[in-house]
Fold:
Amino acid sequence: MKTIHVATFGAGCFWGVEEVFRHVDGVVGTSVGFMGGDVEDPSYEAVCTHDTGHAEVVHVEYDPEKVSYDALLTIFWENHDPTAVNRQGPDVGEQYRSVIFYHSPEQKSVAEASKKNREESGRYKKSIATVIEPAGPYYKAEEYHQQYLEKRGMSTCHV
Structure:
């Protein structure tokens, strides 16, 4: 029986982030939802008030024999601006923050090393704003948010 691992990333609007991860070989499932706040089982509308503290996240289930956590981190870094504080493109607010929620001590150390490598690469003119936090409760968003872009025949929500 295969062991499936989970990874959770916040990188702006969860619709586009999910679409990127859904097509990665070794990813066996994705869903979008909320993590990192202080309100139990928040709705999308509640998160949009900016009063819950949650980030929009993609919850990735993956087969570590086919794709490494480090490879998922590379996808995370390359598909958003990790120097932006509480925003991605036109989306502004704490719910759009750049965050890696780790599910194990190993994920924490790999994420920290990955962030350090990015910071030292000279690739960014500004400091990386991404925070690395322990995963807390994950609250799946309403069904209409799941695979939102796919359901509408879109591949991205960015211009």
Notes: The first strand starts at residue 5 and ends at 11. Strands lie at 5-11, 27-35, 55-62, 87-88, 91-92, 98-102, 131-134, 139-140.
